[in-house]
Structures are given as C-alpha cells and as structure tokens.
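## retry 2 of 3
previous attempt timed out at serialization; input unchanged, resubmitting
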Amino acid sequence: MQTKKIALVLIAIVLFLVPACTRPNANNTPLPPEMPASPTEQPSPVPSETPAVEEPVVLRAQESETQNDALTMEIYLYQPVLKQPENKASGFNQAVENLVREQVNSFTGLVEENLADQESLSELGGCNSLYLEYLPTNTEHGLVSIKFTISTYHIGAAHPFSYSSTLNYDLAEERILQLEELFLPESDYLGVLSEQSILIISENGYMDWPEGAAPEPDNYRNWNITPEGILISFDPYQVAAYAAGPQQALVPYTVLESMLDRNGPLAAFLP
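## retry succeeded, writing output
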C-alpha cells in the first residue's frame, strides 16, 4: 500500500510539471522580443524609398493607319509600346496613348471646323493628313524619354506644318515628370536654359527670334532627358522661320549641375 501511495505522488508531480513546460506564457502576458546577440547584429533601418527599376527597358513600335473619306483625312501613327519591365507597362503605355489621342483629336477637330472651306478647295487635290513618329532619347535609370514629331497638312495649305511633343516618364514612380521637378526649389533653371539655348542655337542653327527662347515655361514645354543633358526642342516659327526648320539645344548636365536636385529624378546622371 505504501508503494502505491509513493507511485501516485510521483505521477501527480509529473502531471503538474508537464503543462508548466508546454505553456510558454500561461498568463497571456506578451513576451519581450528576443534581443540580438550583440548590437552589431541588429539590422539597420531600411529607408522607405521607391525601388529602382533594374530591368532593361524594351520598347516596340506600333503602327496604325486610318482613313476617313467623309473628312478626306488620313492618319498614320508610329508610337512606342513598352514591353519590359512588364509590371510598369500599363501606366507608360496609357500615358503614350493619352498623348497620341490628344494630337489626333485636336487635328480632327480642326478639320471638322473647316470642312466647308475645304470642300470648296477639293479641286486642289490632296487630303488632310497627320503623321506622328517618335524617337526615344533616354531609356536608362528607369526614366523613359520620348520625343514625338507630328506633321500635319490641311487641304489648301501652302505646305505641311510640323511640331513636337515630348513625354518624360518615371517608371519607378509610374508618373509623368515635369521640368521643374528636376531642379532645386527657387533655382533660376529657366534663366540658365534660356541663356544656353540662345547661345547654342545662335552658334549651330538659326536664332531669328530670341524671344521664343525667353525664360518662360511655355517656351520650354518640349524637353527631353538624354544621358548627356536636357534636350530642348523649339518648333518652326518659335525661334526661327519655317524654312530653317525646327531648332534644338542640348544643355549639358555639367552646366546645370549646381541647380539640379541630387535627390531628384536625374540623380543617377550626375557625377
């Protein structure tokens, strides 16, 4: 009998100890986090920045041609389509489509407004036409910069008219960039771009009307990122006559370095 009592006591002790070992926090009090073995093992905080786009940029051309007999009009489009990075393609391609649609709608609207006048000129032959083409000026560091050239002709006009439009797109942030975002706040970037553009075009092109390159935002609406600098495009009649053709000025980053934002979109291009 005494042996049985001893055995029962031992079993009771074992049953009491087992739950205590299997319940790490029986009173539901939160446990403190495990401390690192040494201060050097603690991970450094990660800055909350937009991750860079490392995948190479791949653009493909998309061609389309349409005719409208009622408006005696034809439209030819040669526009870029982003294929890679695939996860960034929809935003960029939509931005391109919006720009192209704006050009097409503007041209079609003018044709419709002047349809009566153009019908009286139909014996002259020809048709209303719009041709849009593109040139990529940069695809590095997650920034895609496209220069579009648009040539239009209206029945009865003496000659076609061409002009440019540009798109500068940040793939990492999936948005269109504005010129002022490249520079430090309060910097006189328009003044420097104006001074350099007038100097470059005067030396290498035709500068008939310097006021077309004055430091005003509208004069610098057509700009592109390139690996060497910012390319400014001026349409015919802006700084020179139509016969001189469009003019452009490539302003090097070395000239703009002191006013460019080193934490901005162009940081990777700066020394």
